[in-house]
Write a structure and sequence with these properties.
By secondary structure, this protein is an alpha/beta fold. It has 2 domains: 172 residues, HUPs (Rossmann fold), CATH 3.40.50.620; 95 residues, Pantoate-beta-alanine ligase, C-terminal domain (Pantoate--beta-alanine Ligase, Chain: A,domain 2), CATH 3.30.1300.10. Helices cover 37% and strands 18% of the residues. The protein is built from 10 helices and 9 strands. Strands 1-4-3-2-5-6 form a 6-stranded parallel sheet, sandwiched between helices. α2 links the parallel β2 and β3. α6 packs across α7. The protein starts with a strand and ends in a 12-residue tail after the last strand. The site of adenosine monophosphate has 17 residues, from α2 and β5.
């Protein structure tokens, strides 16, 4: 497994791979890796000749009062995990190179960045898109793999790739969960034992919302929101932030529920803010990215 730190070296390698006609799969991460990240790596390895994983804690996507300094960093453990799944190249750029002091160009993804998580995290998605655009330019992947757990992020990256003609195929992969349904996340380490237990209610609530839609066929999103809220509120530690029903392909609100629909939610618990989502479609056996 090759570890590369500079954009110049990564650029040279991707040029070389292009010349030898090797397909490149790319998995951008912020490290503190878990099975969710590894599922993206495995998918990339299945579908590409070379897999590149980046580890970069992106300061541009953290707000002034967020956890940039405290974000978990486990370099050696991450590298051991990536080596165990036989990643070809790990790109670990320096902050100075990715966010140079003199750089003034950025990506503004527009209205999609101001809804859902963008309300509580202004500027977050422009920060994500700007760094992902730079990573795409450096790595030149054919395919890039993102988790459904961050559904809004995935839709935004797809939009950016379309608008900026990046020529990268963005693939959304299913959310990997703990045994009780909680979506794996590097930030789950912030949860205390009682908070960790209470957090299972998020997925329970989403599954109930999906069952409610499929069995009762309500037309008003508020009927489903009420059902979901009831479950979330049964856990006093959880403070729901939003529960939204949206069109999966562009995150536009559904006035009247028509399938497919994605239910997205966020809740605060202790020091953590958790997000999760579920797709509701007529054919639940179809892969989730069929809706996009
Ligand atoms: P992060 O390191 O949190 O920025 O995540 C890097 C990538 O891994 C993103 O595309 C995430 O959506 C994805 N990811 C994070 N958690 C999970 C999970 N539980 N299941 C699948 N993908 C995930």
């Amino acid at each position: 497994m090759q570890i590369i730190h500079s954009a110049k070296d990564m650029h040279s390698l991707s040029k070389l791979l292009r010349v030898s006609d090797k397909s490149i799969g790319f998995v951008p991460t912020m490290g503190a890796l878990h099975e969710g990240h590894l599922s993206l790596v495995r998918r990339s390895k299945e579908e590409n000749e070379i897999t590149v994983v980046s580890i970069f804690v992106n300061p541009a996507q953290f707000g002034p009062n967020e956890d940039f300094e405290k974000y978990p960093r486990h370099r050696e453990k991450d590298l051991a995990m990536l080596s165990s799944v036989e990643v070809d190249t790990v790109f670990m750029p320096e902050r100075e190179e990715m966010c140079g002091k003199d750089e003034t160009t950025s990506v503004d993804i527009g209205a999609l960045g101001n809804i859902l998580c963008g309300v509580a995290r202004p500027g977050h998605f422009n920060g994500v898109a700007t760094i992902v655009a730079k990573l795409f330019n450096i790595v030149s992947p054919d395919n890039a793999y993102f988790g459904q757990k961050d559904f809004q992020q995935c839709v935004i990256i797809k939009k950016m790739v379309t608008d900026l003609k990046c020529g990268v195929n963005v693939i959304m992969c299913p959310t990997v969960r703990e045994a009780d349904g909680l979506a794996m996340s590097s930030r789950n380490v912030y949860l205390t034992e009682p908070e960790r237990k209470a957090s299972a209610a998020l997925y329970k609530a989403l599954c109930h919302g999906r069952e409610f839609i499929l069995s009762k066929r309500p037309s008003a999103p508020s009927a489903v929101q009420d059902e979901i809220e009831k479950i979330l509120k049964s856990e006093p530690l959880l403070n729901p932030e939003y529960i939204e029903m949206l069109k999966p392909e562009n995150l536009e609100p559904t006035g009247k529920i028509e399938l497919p629909v994605v239910i997205c939610l966020a809740a605060r618990i202790g020091k953590a803010r958790l997000i999760d989502n579920i797709l509701v479609k007529e054919e639940p056996s179809l892969p989730d990215d069929c809706a996009l």
